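Hi V.,

Quick status before I head out on leave. The structure for the redesign project is tokenized and pasted below; the design run finished overnight.
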């Protein structure tokens, strides 16, 4: 039985795909590298944006016509089963809280059967790491460890909560075990991921700062990236979060999605913080953690966004100068409350999006130009045809020309930054050594 897993969406989805791949290997299935080589295709889906959804529907429709056996997993399986059945009525369904049933689902599909596993199960997925296949990450030195799924928010633009359910934080003990196991199997970068890292543990009377304190004690040569953290809960543990982030175990990086620079729009989105609070969090992080990278997300064209609101968002970008900005044009999602609002004209959204992108690129270029001439200790995490991709201690992406260094994946290299684009830094190696934790 040959299975190909095609993954869309966020790091949490990618972590689910890793879990499914390992469970399939444990069951005796062969997980292959291409759709053409597979008898059965698992499509792990995303439901955040309409264009992505349409792309996925076209893919599963073509797979259905090709005669491939299909298992549709991920957020679309939970939120839009009716659409999946319209495009691929023979596809099996596997929602995010049922990944432990992937081997059964694939086996039935390969035999010509169809299964639907869509009951909500409040399970601790990290129990699955106990049986993680020895070739868990292939040649990669990056391991993705989920710490929770679901959230406590009710954002009006989002239907992911509809797909993944309420907050379900996994146990600290199992998270620590999963990270330690990943490190023993060769991981040099651990990506902690969840739907909202900021809410982690609030259903267990703990929080992400407390978890970070425990993870800092794991032995080994590796760094941890803390994933997306909604600012709604950050004020409850900001001091401890900053102290934990100062540990050498963690990349100096914080992903705080603002979504809008207008308090009016934030209220209408049901984002439970103010722009003044967000500014304070960023100021504290920058003051106490030198060279920290701040990543944020912004939705352009929310239905109630006025020109004044949009200008406030541009002002936010110029003021806080985030190093990474993920821009998303507003898309109406069927299970999101904002879908009932009158949408802005497409031309308005496109015009604002172009203006926003120009502002972001200018800010990011200025940010990165300031690093030219500086030196960084970087970890080589990925290899491409013409380059080695590395991460600095502040999670800045540094490109090293292939041939300039023969260091293998996972090595620490000291580099001098020679040039920069708005997205990456370009470095020349000075020396290579074993990673110092």
């Amino acid at each position: 039985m040959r299975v190909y897993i095609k993954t869309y969406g966020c790091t949490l989805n990618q972590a689910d795909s890793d879990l499914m791949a390992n469970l399939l290997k444990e069951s005796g299935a062969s997980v292959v590298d291409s759709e053409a080589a597979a008898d059965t295709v698992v499509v792990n889906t995303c439901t955040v944006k309409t264009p992505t959804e349409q792309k996925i529907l076209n893919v599963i429709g073509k797979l259905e016509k090709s005669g491939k056996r299909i298992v549709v997993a991920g957020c679309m399986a939970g939120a839009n089963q009716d659409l999946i059945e319209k495009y691929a009525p023979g596809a099996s369904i596997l929602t995010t809280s049922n990944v432990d049933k992937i081997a059964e689902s694939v086996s039935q599909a390969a035999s010509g059967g169809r299964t639907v596993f869509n009951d909500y199960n409040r399970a601790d997925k990290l129990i699955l790491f106990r049986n993680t296949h020895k070739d868990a990450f292939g040649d990669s030195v990056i391991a993705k460890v989920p710490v929770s799924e679901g959230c406590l928010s009710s954002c009006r633009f989002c239907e992911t909560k509809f797909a993944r359910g309420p907050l379900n934080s996994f146990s600290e003990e199992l998270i620590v075990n999963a990270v330690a196991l990943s490190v023993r199997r060769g991981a040099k970068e651990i990506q902690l991921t969840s739907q909202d890292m900021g809410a982690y543990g609030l259903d267990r009377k703990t929080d992400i700062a407390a978890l970070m304190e425990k993870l800092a004690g794991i032995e080994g040569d590796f760094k941890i990236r803390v994933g997306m953290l909604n600012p709604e809960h950050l004020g409850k543990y900001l001091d401890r979060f900053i102290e934990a982030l100062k540990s050498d175990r963690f990349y100096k990086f914080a992903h705080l999605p603002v979504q809008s620079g207008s308090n009016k729009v934030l209220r209408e989105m049901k984002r439970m913080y103010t722009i003044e609070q967000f500014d304070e969090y960023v100021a504290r992080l920058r003051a106490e953690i030198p060279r920290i990278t701040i990543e944020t997300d912004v939705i352009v064209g929310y239905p109630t966004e006025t020109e004044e609101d949009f200008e406030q968002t541009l002002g936010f970008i110029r003021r806080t100068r985030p190093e990474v900005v993920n821009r998303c044009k507003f898309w109406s999602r069927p299970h999101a409350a904002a879908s009932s609002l009158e949408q802005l004209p497409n031309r308005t959204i496109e015009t604002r999006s172009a203006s926003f992108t120009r502002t972001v690129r200018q800010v990011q270029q200025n940010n990165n130009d300031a690093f030219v001439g500086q030196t960084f200790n970087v970890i080589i995490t990925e290899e491409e045809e013409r380059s080695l991709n590395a991460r600095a201690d502040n999670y800045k992406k540094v490109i090293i020309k292939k041939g300039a260094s023969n260091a293998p994946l996972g090595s620490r290299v000291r580099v001098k930054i020679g040039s920069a684009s708005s997205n990456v830094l370009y470095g020349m190696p000075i020396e290579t050594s074993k990673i110092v934790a």
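Above is the designed sequence. The two ends are 41 Å apart (CA to CA).

G. will cover questions while I'm gone.

Best,
W.
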